[in-house]
């Protein structure tokens, strides 16, 4: 896989910035002008996790033409799997001192740990669930939807309904996931104090590493023969089907891969923000992820990362100055980008610096390339 200048620059900036910030947090005194506060480390880590979600959305929307309005569900499921592991690590250090039951279960009068909580005391099992739960849900949903040839706005509405159904389910106390309060008060991860500055810095670097890994994986997928067929399916699905391919199979594979990527982002998000609750399933979160991709540049991968970081940085600043106007600003941003920057911020840079060729590949030429 050959990397162009834009891809190399993205990896260097993401991983390099994370390393520099972590080093300045750990190696400089708090009074120093060079010191990076821990809250900035936590914010940067959160942005990188959101960038993983945006990258997952861009993979299915930008290259397969699947506009998902429910990808926050996969992000949240990965977060809940990590949250369950972190809750089991609290042990008898909780408010009620129960070594087997999380505090919210003791408060609600649960007498024993539900069967689906067993195994989450082991990090390896929890990480397997981070991948498996979003992946299996995506596989079942995708198989039913794509096999039925549900496309366009109908598929978008169904994905939104999926995440809303999960939101309502996880709000219930009898589900055993903390109800509307969710899970919080985490103490440790792999034996390390989760509140320690060193742990926060390590999580930031790990998030950057996973983001770069997902970026390289996505580039490999879209640059391969499989990716060219995806683009053909996106542009002219009926013609691709006429050539003998089964578009539903290709869409299912990339859909499941995208869900797993989002789940990993959610798992890294939870220990850095210190909480996971049903609000992460909110359909608005999925819509925001689509806006990140549109602002950065749909179908570019680099743009997804850039858009997620830029928009969330703007959200942090704007909500501290004029919090009641943030949603209006977000809507205006989406409209302006759609009208004046249809290829996003990355498209603007490309016109000026010619960093890399346009990713668009006509369906006919893509189909000819994969058949030849």
UniProtKB/TrEMBL annotation:
Q: Which domain of life is it from?
A: Bacteria
This protein's membrane topology, according to the annotation, is: Multi-pass membrane protein
This protein's name: Urea ABC transporter permease subunit UrtC
Does the record carry Transmembrane helix as a key word? yes
Q: What is its main location?
A: membrane
A single cellular component GO annotation: plasma membrane
Q: Which CDD domains match?
A: TM_PBP1_LivM_like
GO molecular function of the protein, one example?
Answer: branched-chain amino acid transmembrane transporter activity
Question: Keyword annotations for this protein?
Answer: Cell membrane, Membrane, Transmembrane, Transmembrane helix
A Pfam family reported for this protein in Swiss-Prot or TrEMBL: BPD_transp_2
Its localization reads:
Cell membrane
Q: Which residues cross the membrane?
A: 38-57, 64-87, 122-146, 153-171, 202-222, 252-270, 290-313, 325-349
